[in-house]
């Protein structure tokens, strides 16, 4: 099993809107959320599969739910009780996966 260093909280002045503009930041600055909408369940599932593969690689897993063509995601690093670089990396990877799935659906 690979050992990963304990993630540390992002700086209080970290600009979430600049780095993750489509994500919503909770008032306590401990969680970011986003809803992804697809043409159908198959594309939503493809997105979740791509994201799950990356999450496994970085050993950081989202809170998420799927309802037919929608995937609701919340990211937070529970061990740090804060948002960390892992959340930002996963959010950015999810944006990339979303664009890839959208391109495939055309």
Descriptive report:
The protein is of the alpha+beta class and 106 residues long. The chain contains three helices and four strands. Strands 1-2-4-3 form a four-stranded antiparallel beta sheet, with helices on one face. β1 and β2 form a beta hairpin. α2 runs antiparallel to α3. The protein is globular, with a radius of gyration of 14 Å. It starts with 15 loop residues before the first helix and ends with a helix. The relative contact order is 0.24. The mean pLDDT is 94.
Keyword list:
about 110 residues, 4 strands, globular, alpha+beta, 3 helices, four-stranded antiparallel sheet
End-to-end distance = 40 Å
- Return the string of H and E elements: HEEHEEH
Q: What would the average pLDDT be, to the nearest integer?
A: 94
> What share of the residues lie within helices?
25-40%
Question: What global shape is seen?
Answer: globular
> Which strand order spans the largest sheet, edge to edge or round the barrel?
1-2-4-3
Given helix and strand content, the structural type is alpha+beta
pLDDT < 50 stretches: none
Q: Report the strand count.
A: 4
Number of helices: 3
Specify the biggest β-sheet.
4 strands, antiparallel
Summarize the structure.
By secondary structure, the chain is α+β, with helices and mostly antiparallel strands.
Write the layout of secondary structure elements.
Layout: H1 16-19, E1 24-25, E2 32-37, H2 41-58, E3 63-67, E4 70-75, H3 85-104
Antiparallel strand pairs: 1-2, 2-4, 3-4
Helix pairs in contact: 2-3
